């Protein structure tokens, strides 16, 4: 690894008095990356009076709102809406995960009092009441690598907790429904395709016939090395799987491309524009405050481009 002072930072500064900063995070335990965050980023965080995130993850209403938006309407269960074969495959996979969890957990997790059953229920509890699209995302988070990272706050949550501890002003530029509704907006056939493809990938992973092309470990490595392009153009930018695969039949390739286009439009382009406008509004309405905006690294870079296009006042720091 490079020395910290030599690392590139995911930090942009907006030249104003007082200054404002955009900082790119990734959704991994902060302990895996914090030592590699350059000093200029930490100093910017320390110096800012207000810290803003995509969502306020320290607010209980945010957490309950996220949980509620994932539920099927009218008290329905997954068994009521999924094809029988898909439902049983999903159930078998979750049973496999439950059996493997004790073997995946680290001694450190067990030392902190985490139990496999507790961890499974924390992630997958109430899964039969969830909408299929959220179950798909849940399945993607039930891997050995992700399980081994549980119990440590992710980077943006760590920053939020630190901001509260330091009595900084905190806020969010998005509402829960703005993150939820686009995911819930996929049509049912697209959702079934996405869940089926996700299960196929994980079933192949279990059988040893498939290997994930880009892992969380890869993401951490590129982030710690300041490799902006590698971080932006992988799944963490939208936290969604990529279904485009040349081995799919033509009609399924069309479906995969439609889903990819929809997610890019709704969860990347529209969100970036909305968040960029809200950042600019906050800056214009609070000319006497210093701000530190902590967003996903891919999203931060796009907001940087939007803001620089609008005002021409932003400067990239290395």
From TrEMBL:
Needed cofactors: Mn(2+); Co(2+)
GO MF entry, a single one: Wnt-protein binding
Primary enzyme class: hydrolase
This protein's UniProt keywords: Cell membrane, Glycoprotein, Hydrolase, Membrane, Metal-binding, Metalloprotease, Protease, Signal, Transmembrane, Transmembrane helix, Wnt signaling pathway
GO biological process terms on file: negative regulation of Wnt signaling pathway; positive regulation of protein-containing complex assembly; proteolysis; Wnt signaling pathway
Localization of this protein: Cell membrane; Membrane
InterPro entries xrefs: TIKI1/2-like (IPR040230), TraB/PrgY/GumN_fam (IPR002816)
UniProt cofactor note: Divalent metal cations. Mn(2+) or Co(2+).
Record-level GO cellular component terms: nucleoplasm; organelle membrane; plasma membrane
Transmembrane segments: none
Lipid bilayer topology: Single-pass type I membrane protein
EC number assigned by the record: 3.4.-.-
Domain of life: Eukaryota
Family of this protein: Belongs to the TIKI family.
Its biological purpose: Metalloprotease that acts as a negative regulator of the Wnt signaling pathway by mediating the cleavage of the N-terminal residues of a subset of Wnt proteins. Following cleavage, Wnt proteins become oxidized and form large disulfide-bond oligomers, leading to their inactivation.
Name by which UniProt lists this protein: Metalloprotease TIKI
Organism field: Naja naja
Name of the encoding gene: TRABD2B
């Amino acid at each position: 690894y490079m020395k910290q002072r030599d690392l590139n930072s995911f930090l942009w500064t907006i030249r104003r008095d007082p200054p404002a900063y955009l900082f790119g995070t990734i959704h991994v335990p902060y302990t895996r990356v914090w030592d590699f965050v350059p000093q200029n980023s930490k100093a910017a965080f320390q110096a800012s009076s207000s810290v803003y995130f995509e969502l306020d993850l320290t607010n209980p209403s945010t957490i309950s709102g996220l949980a509620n938006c994932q539920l099927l309407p009218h008290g329905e269960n997954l068994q009521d809406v999924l094809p029988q074969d898909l439902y049983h495959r999903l159930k078998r996979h979750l049973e496999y995960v439950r059996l493997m969890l004790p073997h995946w957990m680290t001694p450190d997790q067990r030392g902190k009092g985490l139990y496999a059953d507790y961890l499974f229920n924390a992630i997958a509890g109430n899964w039969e009441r969830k909408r299929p699209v959220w179950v798909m995302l849940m399945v993607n988070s039930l891997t050995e690598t992700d399980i081994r990272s549980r119990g440590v706050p992710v980077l943006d949550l760590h920053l939020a907790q630190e901001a509260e501890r330091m009595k900084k002003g905190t806020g969010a530029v998005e509402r829960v429904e703005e993150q939820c509704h686009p995911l819930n907006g996929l049509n049912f056939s697209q959702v079934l395709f996405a869940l089926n493809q996700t299960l196929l990938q994980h079933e192949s992973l279990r059988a040893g016939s498939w290997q994930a092309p880009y892992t969380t470990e890869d993401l951490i490595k590129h982030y710690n090395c300041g490799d902006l392009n590698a971080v932006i153009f992988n799944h963490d930018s939208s936290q969604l799987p990529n279904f485009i695969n040349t081995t799919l039949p033509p009609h399924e390739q069309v479906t995969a491309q439609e889903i990819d286009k929809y997610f890019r439009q709704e969860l990347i382009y529209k969100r970036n524009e909305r968040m960029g406008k809200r950042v600019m509004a906050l800056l214009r309405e609070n000319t006497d405050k210093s701000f530190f905006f902590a967003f996903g690294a891919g999203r931060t870079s796009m907001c940087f481009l939007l803001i620089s296009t609008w005002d021409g006042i932003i400067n990239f720091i290395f």
